[in-house]
Amino acid sequence: MLLGRSAECARLLALIDKARGGESGALLIRGEAGIGKTSLVSHVAAQAADLLLLSTRGVEVESDLPYVGLADLLRPVLTFLDRIPERQADALTGALALGPAVAQDRFAVAAGTLSLLGALAEENPVLVTVDDAQWLDPYSLDALAFATRRLGREGVVVLFTARDEQEEAASRLASIETFTLTGLDPESAHRLIAEEGTAELTEREAARLLTEARGNPLALIELPALLAGSADDEDSGAPLPIGEMLAHTFGSAVARLPSEAQDAMLLLAVLGTRPLAGTEAALRAHGLSYESLEAAEAAGLVVEERDGYAFRHPLVRSAVYHSATAVRRRRAHHAIARSLQGATAPALEQYAWHLAASGAEPDEHVASLLENAAAGAPETLAYPLASRLYERAARFTPEGQRKAERLLGAARASQAAGALNEAAAILDRALEHAEQLATQLDIRQLRCYLDVQRGRPTRSRELLRSAVDEAEKVDPALAAVMLGGIALTELAIGDLTAAHRTSATAVELADSAHEPLVPVRLLRTLVLLLGGDAEAGRALLRELAGPLASPDPTFPYPVAGVGGLCHLAAEELDEAHGLLDRAAYTARGSSAVGLLSHLLGTLSVVEFWRGRWTPSLASADEAVRLAEATGQVIEVSRGLAALVRTEAALNREEDCRRHAAQAMEWAASTELQLDAARALGGLGLLELGLGRFEEAVHHLEEVRAFSQRHGRGDGLYLTWAADLADAYVHLHRTAEAREVLDVLEYEAGRGHRPVTAGAAARCRGLLEPGDPEAASHHMRRSLALLSERPVPFERGRTEFAWGEQLRRQGRRSEARRLLERALATFERLGATGWAARVAAELHAAGGTEVQPERGPLERLTPQELQVALVVGRGLTNHEVAERLFLSVKTVEFHLSNIYRKLEGVHRRAQLVRLLAQAAEAPEVSEV
């Protein structure tokens, strides 16, 4: 057992034992330099010889080279790439510079990493160790974090170590369990000094070391030689600078080596985690060889590993690099650059990086070489690599316009890779160098889209507005696209009044420039359907059917997602579902995780209205998970708002309230008040289903106020009027109910909107209690209108309202027929709160007392639901794993839980049949 670490070893070994039993786990171990993080992980790895070990280490000088850490980790298992989906394998080989580069979402690489770990675990449990994660490049760290979060039942353990003063790595690994490694206890510290200390100390020297080292094992071993016989006054009260003293100790050891060994160690420090052949080439370019490192090995400063030599501890590497003079460091970088001269992408990026570190001056030849590599094959080059090549090209470009253009190229590639914060920072630098107005405007426009994605729409609107007038003078088409971007931000905020004006001006400019500009017209279509001329909106939507069928992926926002919103606003639910479902299926197949969260958030809303609440819940839950993983702030709040409404209808009260609070918290921090309003509307529906009408009014009146402030009426995306009118009627606040009915009837009159019109007719019937014939006419009309669309919940609500009204009029037989149908609908949907209200009303009408039952699918978790739904498409476990970004073993685990929870379901065919039955809408009966 490692000295003084029995509890820590036991904790890690418990994870190893679980992996042997097929359960995955992960841990982030934090602590100061020298505290023993690496030793702890190495000791545990030695006790897990039966597991497949994959390891990598972050290196400070390599921290901005994309995927260098992941390449080092996966290099030993590349022969398994043929066992994962082809698109993911291609993304991995391209990103890791192991084969032809391919264009990909950076989360395709993360999904490939997950699939590869799962494939390895099918043969043997796997232990992954990532040492010094604070220096691992962000792309590798994000890929590993994504994969780790989605591990389940594979038998994979992932152990990260990171220094506790480095917060960026910890924030990227925030969802992973963390513990901080502290110093050894006094008894263990005494033993360590006695057994491994580098010199004999007096009692006073030992006491001081024990006090100041605070149990740091590396300090306890290495510093005795420095302290022995020291004339320092131990009573001065000055603390020992442990980090500086360790660096000094290692630096002194390096200084005693022959100059040839020092040069070789400096090259090794600069090279980082390079394979053996690359190290040998760099040493030869400097007139050195591996034999030059023998003295360093004898001094215990380097050790031999599978790919050559490695430093005994990261502090040794740091001491070697930082103790060298600037001239020697530049010479080392230049030697490595020479060894890479003539390389092609991606090694070309390393050549440029080392050339820059060598102090090379701006050089247009080098800059052009890098730019051509980045832009020469945009259909095949991995986005992160393209971004870095453009950035390196800018580094070798003199100040001015060309520098700005190359930085703009880097920002666009970073945005495509999903690195939104990095892209924004690059754009800020680009704007400083842009001399031409057109370039300045392009930069501002891209910054706008980035801010929308990051949940800062107000700032982006202000940025674009300041540039539109200038753009109109030089390029009306560009000005139109900019105005379209402003309209997009206004829609995200929820300000439909402003979006109406902006989108109209954008289309006028596009017409004057004689440009089709499909994105601009699509946004105008959505604005018209949400709050303008719905017939004109439908006409535009028909004109755009072609582009929507095969959307251009270069559009600055997801066209299929906006098209789905257009169909939803037009109450064309089947068309919305078809478009979004196809787009989501395609996004899954191409591992486009960043796009998928947007599509799923809208698809969830559509499925809610179609009465398919199981897939609605699963889609919204996955949208939130993916948005959090990809840093798409705007999609987190959208997905949460969708979750709230579905959970409200399902009477999942605790989940509904928790997600509503989260949605409003996200909205408050990101200016996305539309999603806060949607969440409040969901809470209103929850209270309505539970019969708490005062509470329902409280929430829904807030939504009404938001809608009125921003020029919005009532629609399927932000819905409130029918619920508020229902609550007012039950509270006998008839005048207020009639005011809300006016809103509904106005909305219903804007073109053919049968769902809104059906809800309006139901409310009109509720407000005619004194005229049974008129009330029945309106209720009958409501059912007829609602039968035009697949909206079973709305039909059930009309049947319930009418049955309740008939029972109070003494027409109990007619009431029972309607209430029985409503009860059957609510039970099928899983609307237990509504079903309980109907059951009570049915009993009062003389019907048999019934206890509403929960549907079988309600026993499943959201992730189990998502697995079940994809299995229902007839896919294999491997195909399900690919599309849900899970491992095969996790899919198998969820599937076994599904079979255990669903009575009478033991095979895929039975599951498919149950899902089909749940999706079937009951036939509409004439009344």
Task: Give an overview in words.
With 927 residues, the chain is mostly helical. The protein has 48 helices and seven strands. The chain has a five-stranded parallel β-sheet, with helices on both faces. α6 links the parallel β3 and β4. α13 crosses α16, α14 crosses α17 and α27 packs antiparallel against α28. It is globular and about 105 Å long. The termini are far apart. The C terminus is likely disordered.
Descriptive labels:
single chain, 927 residues, mainly alpha, five-stranded parallel sheet, two-stranded antiparallel sheet, disordered C terminus
Rg, Å, rounded: 32 Å
**How many E strands?**
7
Helix proportion range: 55-70%
Total DSSP helices: 48
User: Could you list the spans in which at least 5 consecutive residues all have pLDDT below 50?
Assistant: 231-239, 921-927
Mean pLDDT metric? 84
Strand order of the largest sheet: 2-3-4-1-5
* Secondary structural class: mainly alpha
Instruction: Please tell me what the overall shape is.
Output: globular
Distance between the termini: 79 Å
Strand fraction: under 5%
Biggest sheet architecture:
5 strands, parallel
Secondary structure elements and their pairing?
Elements: H1 6-20, E1 25-31, H2 37-46, E2 52-57, H3 68-74, H4 86-95, H5 106-121, E3 126-131, H6 138-149, E4 156-163, H7 167-172, E5 178-180, H8 186-196, H9 203-213, H10 217-222, H11 224-227, H12 242-255, H13 259-271, H14 276-285, H15 294-298, E6 302-305, E7 308-311, H16 314-323, H17 326-339, H18 347-357, H19 364-375, H20 383-395, H21 401-416, H22 420-433, H23 437-453, H24 457-474, H25 476-493, H26 496-512, H27 518-531, H28 534-543, H29 545-549, H30 559-569, H31 573-589, H32 593-609, H33 613-630, H34 633-649, H35 653-670, H36 673-689, H37 693-709, H38 721-730, H39 734-748, H40 754-766, H41 772-786, H42 792-808, H43 812-829, H44 832-844, H45 862-871, H46 877-884, H47 888-901, H48 908-919
Parallel strand pairs: 1-4, 1-5, 2-3, 3-4
Antiparallel strand pairs: 6-7
Helix pairs in contact: 1-2, 3-6, 4-5, 5-6, 12-16, 13-16, 13-17, 14-17, 17-18, 18-20, 19-20, 20-21, 21-22, 21-23, 22-23, 23-24, 23-25, 24-25, 25-26, 25-27, 26-27, 27-28, 27-30, 30-31, 30-32, 31-32, 32-33, 32-34, 33-34, 33-45, 34-35, 34-36, 35-36, 36-37, 37-38, 38-39, 38-40, 39-40, 40-41, 40-42, ...
